[in-house]
Amino acid sequence: MGHISALTAWLILAAEVGAVFIILTTAHDPLTVNVGFSVLAGITTWSAIPALSEIFVKAGLKGMDLSKKTKHIIPESMGMVAGLIYLVTMFLFIPFPFMKWFTASNDGDLHELKLLTFPNLKLAELLSALLSIQSMVFLGFADDVLDIRWRFKMPLPAIASIPLLMVYWVHLGVTHIVVPIPLRPILGQLIDLGALYYVYMGMVAIFCTHSINIMAGINGVEVGQSLVIACSIAINDMIFLQSASTGAPAIETHLFSLYFILPFIGVSLGLMIHNWYPSKVFIGDTYCYFAGMTFAVVGILAHYSKTLLLFFIPQIFNFLLSAPQLFRLVPCPRHRVPRYNRQTNLMEPSRVVLDEEEDFEVEFSSTKQESKRTLGRSPSSVSLSSAGAAGASTQDSDESPTESSNPPTTIRLQDLRPLKNSKLKRSGWYCVKILEALGLTHVRYDSKTGKRPLEMTNLTILNLILLKAGPMSERNLTISVMVVQFCCSLVAFFIRHRLVAFVYDVV
Ligand code: UD1
Ligand code: MG
C-alpha cells in the first residue's frame, strides 16, 4: 500500500484489528458481528481499489471522464471490487446467524433436536439472496465488458431474482395486498394478486437495477444515491427493531435486511472515497446492478417492497421523465449526461437534436391540406433534389429530376417521410410539447417559423436540476442529487410512519 502514509496504514490496521476483535468477542450476536464485518469490508474496499486500478486499465477496463478539461483514462468497473468484497464478507458471515446451532452439544437427542429445529428456510433465504446479488454482479461486469444491448439486458434482473422468488414462495408465500381503509367498502380488506405478485417482484428487481444505471454519469452520483437509499433502509430497519409493537417475524425480516445493507454501506463508502469528484475510478454498470439487486433482495425478502419504492422516488421520477427517450418516442443519444462547459468549468443541460435547421421547413401538420398550404407558402424552400442529397428515397415518386428541381405546388406527405427533418414522430412531438409545458425540458425551435422543435434538453433529473438551478460544478450537481434523494427519503419516512396511519390500520 505504497499510496498511503505510514500513519494511515497504522490507523487502518488498528481499525481492522478492532473489527476482528468485535467479531470474535460478539460471535453470539450476529448483528454486532455484521457491523464488524462491514467495517472490515469498507476498509478492504478502500485499500484494494488503488492497488487494482492499474490491473483494470491493463485489462482494458477503462473509461474517459466526459466532464473534465483534460481527457484522461480512468479505470472502469470498480464496482466489481466492491461487489466481490461484499460477497466474500457475506459468505464469511453466513455461519453467524446460526451460531447457536453450532455451539449446541452434538450428542444424542440434542443432535436430533438440532436437525429438527434448524431454520433451513432462513439459510435458503440467505443463500438465494446471495445467489441473486452474485448473478447481477456477474451480469453487470459482462455488460461493462461486452456492452450488452438494452433489449437483452432489460429483463436480466427478473431472471436473476428467480432463486429469491422460489424461496419467497416456499417460505413467505404472501401474495395479497392490504387494501387502504377508504377503499375497503368496495374492495374488501385484502386482494390476492396470486402469480401477479411474483411478476410485480420481478419488475421491482428490474426497476431497482436499471433505475440507478440511468441516473448516472457524473462523478460520485451512482454511489451517492445508493448510499442515501441504503442508509434510509438501515434507519427504517432500526426503527422497526426499536418499536415495541414489532412482532417476532418482523424483527427477523428487518434483521435480515440489516445483515445485507450494513456491509453494502461499508463497501460503498470504501468505493465512494475513490469515486468522489474528481473521480480516480469509475464504478461501471457492475456497481449499479449490484446496488439495485441488493435493494431489491432486501425489499422482497423483508417484505417491504412498497416502502423500498418510496426510497426510490427520485429514480421513479427520473424513469418517468426518461420514458420518452427510453421508449424512443424522441431520439435517445448514447450519453445523456449533462454537458461540461470548458470555458466556465460548469455543467449545463445536455441537448438532443430532434430536427435539422437546414433543408425545408415542413411543419408537422395534422392534415394533408395543411401540409400543402405550408409548402405552397414557401415553394423556394421545397426541393426534392435537396431531399435526395439528404438521403431521402424518391424511388416511389413519379417526378423526373427536372420536375424535382422545380418544386411542385402539391406534395404528398408520404413523399416527405424519409427526409431528415421528419425524424421526430408525431407521438414524439406531443411528448416534447407536454414536457415543455410542464417545464421539464427546454426546447429550441427553428429560427424561421419558430414552430419546428430542433433541440431539447435530455430528459434526466440531472439535466432538470441544471435547468431549474442554473449551471453548477460537477461536484455540486452530485451533492444536489444526494440532497434531493435525502429529502425524498424524509418524505418516504413521513408517508411510511405517519401518513400510513390514515390509510392502513397498522403502523
Ligand atoms: C447510462 C445512461 C447514459 C449515461 C451513462 C453514464 C441512459 C439510457 N443511459 O448508459 O445516458 O450517459 O449511463 O454513465 O440513460 N462517465 C463519466 N463520468 C462519471 C461516470 C461515467 O464521464 O462520473 C462516463 C465515462 O465515459 C464512462 C461512461 O460514462 O466510461 C459509462 O457509461 P455506461 O455505464 O457504459 O453507460 P450506460 O449505463 O449504457
Ligand atoms: Mg452505466
UniProtKB/TrEMBL annotation:
InterPro entries: Glycosyl_transferase_4, GPT. Pathway: Protein modification; protein glycosylation. Residues 402-411 have a biased composition (Polar residues). Residues 376-393 have a biased composition (Low complexity). GO terms for molecular function: glycosyltransferase activity; metal ion binding; UDP-N-acetylglucosamine-dolichyl-phosphate N-acetylglucosaminephosphotransferase activity. It is a multi-pass membrane protein. Its cofactor is Mg(2+). Residues 365-411 are annotated as: Disordered. The chain crosses the membrane at residues 35-57, 78-98, 158-183, 195-215, 227-244, 256-274, 286-304, 310-330. Keywords: Endoplasmic reticulum, Glycosyltransferase, Magnesium, Membrane, Metal-binding, Transferase, Transmembrane, Transmembrane helix. GO terms for cellular component: UDP-N-acetylglucosamine transferase complex. Its EC number is 2.7.8.15. GO terms for biological process: aerobic respiration; dolichol-linked oligosaccharide biosynthetic process. Pfam families: Glycos_transf_4. It catalyses: a di-trans,poly-cis-dolichyl phosphate + UDP-N-acetyl-alpha-D-glucosamine = an N-acetyl-alpha-D-glucosaminyl-diphospho-di-trans,poly-cis-dolichol + UMP. It comes from the Eukaryota. Belongs to the glycosyltransferase 4 family. UDP-N-acetylglucosamine--dolichyl-phosphate N-acetylglucosaminephosphotransferase that operates in the biosynthetic pathway of dolichol-linked oligosaccharides, the glycan precursors employed in protein asparagine (N)-glycosylation. The assembly of dolichol-linked oligosaccharides begins on the cytosolic side of the endoplasmic reticulum membrane and finishes in its lumen. The sequential addition of sugars to dolichol pyrophosphate produces dolichol-linked oligosaccharides containing fourteen sugars, including two GlcNAcs, nine mannoses and three glucoses. This is UDP-N-acetylglucosamine--dolichyl-phosphate N-acetylglucosaminephosphotransferase.
